[in-house]
Design goal:
heterodimer, A: 464 residues, alpha/beta, 11-stranded mixed sheet, 10-stranded mixed sheet, 23 strands, B: 195 residues, 6-stranded parallel sheet, 5-stranded parallel sheet, SufBD_N (chain A), Fe-S_cluster_assembly_SufBD (chain A)
């Protein structure tokens, strides 16, 4: 695999030669699904689940809204490949190539500093896991989902696919049939995990789709912060990423799920994320979408119990040939449930950002309240920004608010910074970083720093 | 120059704004489509809509504010009060084309739900293809402010009296905004319905 010279020094994307131990043939069929399942040595219930999902996938139509997905060819995708045999217990056991990729992103230092557990994904399977003793002592389970199916079948079976059934949408069905890897987190009752759990994901094989499956269960009064950071190498062929994330927030529990997504600019990122929140539970999605060709992602909260709370804070940045179609869904089923959505989007150099959201209040959800705020910046005349909110209210004792603004960088602010000796480019970066600050401050420091650098890099050459 | 258009009377669903003037569109319990294409640079368009829904009323309003020329302005204000099983489905779209630099557009939808069986669906959308613009939209749905109700009742008003007063004030904002633009005798018969 040769990398074009011009991309050699691209700071935030890497390409390593891919040497999979096993790679399935292109395309998806019943035979291929059975092959994946038997290679993984899965129990029958999972095999049947995959086969049922495949049928649903084949019947389901492509969504007729959102990004243009016409160029996805499902028959040209490799649905499963294995980078090393099984999971490696330590860094030293990893193949040098994989280690090199990770060192470029800086995992080892990060880990030394303050990671509590790393589960890094290379190709479709988790190859490295390090779980600190403390986590195990607390009874917290943190492993890849494949391992969880084997080691904790009772827990997995009880929850897997119940929140996002295969029939939810075409890409959830695809994931259900072909899933591989992803994280499984189980936090026992009353346990508060202080340090965030992190998993790094990378797509590293041309034309190779990644279908990871994440399941998080937070038992009553527990707390957990999960971080997924994605950086992908640059490739010429289209790649597909269709993940499914299911989260169960039990009574009084609190879960925060942070995503920093920087797929290379040819990836289709079509992800289904959903959380069920019971009484007094809190679910927070923090979602930064920077890379990919097309992203369609709408993290949602099903607020099922009294006083359950849901939040989505998101940032979207779309440059040339990018369409970020992202948003959030809040469904209020119970009294006194509350939700908040803050969305910040930036489009530049012909990029397009779309906010698509839903707030729905069902009968009986008395005293529910919801606040939605979407701000968009358009940096040049080639770019575009859309806002498509839906507010559906079937209960009278509610307070539902939505607001949105679209504007450009303030001339006066730019002029002021300019007059203080800051050049135009830096001034624009400063203003954009200020614009996303309300969301960026919620992200852990190392990601916020990377985000800040990335924005500065992206802003180079955008102001004439 | 200001022109006043009672959309129910004129019955037209599509309007092309070809002159640099101010246009005021008024809609009362109007169900249907309204498409306004602003083609004259510097033109200003106001859209005011009131709904008072009772019984099994079902309103479906679609409003398009399409800006095709530079320095154009539009503002939509849609206010509704829904009793019994009355329902509203509102779809608003502000579309600013590339050719409409320097435009401003606003869209606001506010609803009061007076009954448990009422239903409101609000979809205030934006599609912005130019960068030198300022656009906002807002949507709120809920009940009457309980502090305000409490205050009025502490002053001796009965609950229905207090509610009526607050609802009147809520809807009156529309008429006051129109008054600020000019006096239109056509509006009086609608104003009477508030009493």
């Amino acid at each position: 695999m040769k990398i074009p010279k011009s991309l050699d020094n691209y700071q935030y994307g890497f390409a390593m030669p891919s040497k999979p131990v096993f790679k399935s043939k292109k395309g998806l069929s019943e035979k291929r699904v059975l092959e994946i399942s038997s290679l993984k040595g899965e129990p029958d219930w999972m095999k049947d689940f995959r086969l049922r999902s495949l049928q649903i996938f084949q019947k389901k139509k492509m969504p007729r809204w959102g990004g243009d997905l016409a160029k996805i060819n499902f028959n040209e995708i490799v649905y499963f490949s294995r980078a090393t045999e099984g999971s490696s217990p330590t860094w030293q056991d990893l193949p040098p190539e994989i280690r090199k990729t990770y060192e470029k992103i800086g995992i080892p230092q990060a880990e030394k500093d303050f990671l509590s557990g790393v589960s890094a994904q290379y190709d479709s399977e988790v190859v490295y896991e390090s779980i600190q003793k403390e986590l195990t002592k607390q009874g917290v389970i943190f492993c890849d989902t494949d391992t969880a199916v084997k080691k904790y079948p009772d827990i997995v079976r009880q929850y897997f696919g119940t929140l996002i059934p295969a029939s939810d949408n075409k890409f959830a069905a695809l994931n259900s049939a072909a899933w591989s890897g992803g994280s499984f987190v189980y936090v026992p009752k009353g346990v508060k995990v202080v340090l965030p759990l992190q998993a790094y994901f990378r797509i590293n094989s041309q034309n190779f789709g990644q279908f990871e499956r994440t399941l998080i269960i937070a038992e009553p009064n527990s707390e957990i912060h999960y971080i997924e950071g994605c950086t992908a190498p640059i490739y010429s062929a289209k790649s597909l990423h269709a993940a499914v994330v299911e989260i169960f927030v039990k009574k009084g529990a609190r879960v925060r799920y942070t995503t920093v997504q920087n797929w290379s600019k040819n990836v289709y990122n079509l992800v289904t994320k959903r959380a069920r929140v019971d009484q007094d539970g809190i679910m927070e999605w923090i979602d930064c979408n920077l890379g990919s060709a097309i992203t369609m992602k709408y993290p949602s909260c099903y607020l099922m119990g009294k006083r359950a709370r849901g939040e989505v804070l998101s940032i979207a940045l779309a440059g040339q040939n990018q369409h970020q179609d992202a948003g959030a869904k809040m469904l209020h089923f119970a009294p006194k449930t509350s939700s908040r959505i803050i969305s910040k989007s930036i489009s530049k150099q012909g990029g397009r950002t779309s906010y698509r959201g839903l707030v729905q209040v069902f009968p009986g959800a008395k005293n529910a309240s919801s606040f939605v705020s979407c701000d968009a910046l358009i940096l040049d005349e080639k770019s575009r920004s859309d806002t498509y909110p839906v507010l559906r209210i079937k209960e009278k004792d509610v307070q539902i608010q939505h607001e949105a603004t679209v504007e450009r960088l303030g001339e006066e602010k730019l002029f002021y910074l300019n007059s203080r000796g800051i050049n135009k480019e830096d001034a624009a970066s400063l203003l954009v970083n200020g614009f996303i600050e309300p969301v960026a401050k919620e992200i852990p420091l190392e990601y916020a720093v990377e985000l800040n650098r990335l924005i500065n890099l992206e802003m180079k050459g955008t102001v004439g | 120059m200001i022109k006043f258009i009672d959309v129910i009377k004129s019955r037209r669903r599509e309007y092309r704004i070809d002159e640099k003037a101010t246009f005021v569109f008024f809609l009362y319990n109007y169900s249907g489509r309204l498409r306004i294409k602003i083609q004259a640079a510097g033109a200003r368009v106001y859209i005011f809509s009131i709904f008072i829904g009772r019984g099994k009323d079902l309103f479906r309003l679609q409003v398009l504010q399409q800006h095709l020329s530079p320095q154009t302005f539009s503002e939509a204000l849609v206010k509704g009060v829904f009793y019994d099983e009355a329902k509203l489905i509102y779809e608003g779209l502000i579309k600013i084309e590339k050719s409409a630099q320097g435009s401003h557009a606003y869209q606001k939808n506010q609803n009061l739900l007076m009954s448990k069986r009422g239903f409101v669906e609000s979809r205030p959308s934006l599609e912005i293809l130019a960068n030198d613009v300022f656009c906002t939209h807002g949507s709120t749905t809920g009940r009457l402010n309980s502090d305000q109700l409490f205050y009025l009742r502490s002053r001796g008003l009965t609950k229905p009296q207090a509610q009526n007063l607050l609802i009147k004030g809520f809807l009156k904002e529309v008429f006051e905004k129109i008054e600020n633009l000019g006096h239109f005798p056509e509006l009086e018969k609608y104003q009477d319905r508030l009493n």
